[in-house]
Design a protein that fits this description.
Blueprint: E1 6-12, E2 16-20, E3 25-39, E4 42-47, E5 51-54, E6 60-76, H1 78-85, E7 92-93, E8 97-98, H2 101-116, H3 121-136, E9 137-138, H4 151-161, H5 169-176, H6 180-191, H7 195-212, H8 217-223, H9 229-240, H10 244-248
Antiparallel strand pairs: 1-6, 2-6, 3-4, 3-5, 3-6, 5-8, 7-9
């Protein structure tokens, strides 16, 4: 199996992100300014020099502070974490904003290694993630809140298989053999958001990867299930903070850290 760590560097002034989620671990170093976000029922404040961590598929929102914000992020697949840590368990972070100079420095180095295709890229990334998870993560995270199998994981698999097609609550419920009401209740309890919000977030995540590989914006929109390019652009701008065109014009090109 091949997975990739993806990079993103952005700056915002006064922007507010609506509630959304990412497929992978979302780890960011804050280079300037300040901001806030909420997830799992708690609010968090961060400032320049801090590190923020979000679990995969975790609903969150966010806002830049009065002076704006500059940050660099890493989207890290679970498979990479398991390889780096040498474990099959799923770790968990209690603190989502970390004041750790070593973690900040090593994650910054990892971001630079990825965007610059550094010859020791894998070692730099493994060192950064090993320190972050070794120093701040613990145990395994429950994948469901009520003792049942994870509905978020099941919905995620279905969405990946049906990405280019319309996906309704009835489709998801039938696939999981649940009533629509039961699916809504369990999904909200586990993910903190509605299935529709998760589906849109997943479409935008996949769109970022396709754009990075040079797929035309109109083709990306069709591939990930948006009605047209304007539909993609509207949701992309809402969740990423910039348009697909601006995303393509970024100076740094994402690189891949592969794991077999």
């Amino acid at each position: 199996m091949l997975d990739a760590v993806k990079t993103l560097a952005l700056a915002f002034d006064g922007y507010r992100f609506p509630r959304h989620a990412h497929e992978h671990w979302s780890i960011a170093v804050i280079d300037g300014g300040s901001g806030s976000f909420s997830c799992s029922g708690a609010g968090h404040q961060f400032a320049s020099g801090s590190v923020t961590v979000l679990h995969p598929a975790e609903a969150h929102d966010g806002a830049a502070g009065p002076a704006g914000i500059r940050y660099r992020s890493l989207a890290v697949p679970e498979a990479v974490i398991k390889e780096v840590l040498g474990t099959d368990g799923t770790p968990s972070f209690v603190n989502r904003v970390l004041q750790d100079d070593t973690a900040y420095t090593r994650l910054s180095q990892a971001h630079c290694a990825l965007t610059g295709n550094h010859p020791w890229m894998q070692e730099v990334i493994a060192d950064a993630l090993g320190h972050l998870f070794g120093a701040h993560a613990s145990g395994g995270r429950s994948q469901a809140s009520d003792g049942h199998a994870s509905v978020v994981a099941a919905v995620g698999r279905y969405v990946d298989e049906s990405l280019g097609s319309p996906i309704t609550l009835a489709d998801l419920a039938a696939h999981l053999e649940l009533s629509p009401a039961a699916l809504l209740r369990r999904f909200r309890a586990e993910a903190g958001m509605a299935p529709y919000e998760y589906v849109v977030s997943r479409r935008v995540d996949v769109a970022q990867g396709l754009l990075t590989r040079g797929v035309p914006i109109s083709a990306v929109a069709m591939h990930v299930g948006f009605a047209d390019q304007s539909h993609l652009t509207r949701h992309f701008k809402r969740l990423v903070g910039i348009t697909p065109g601006d995303y393509l014009r970024r100076p740094a090109v994402s690189r891949s850290f592969k794991t077999d």
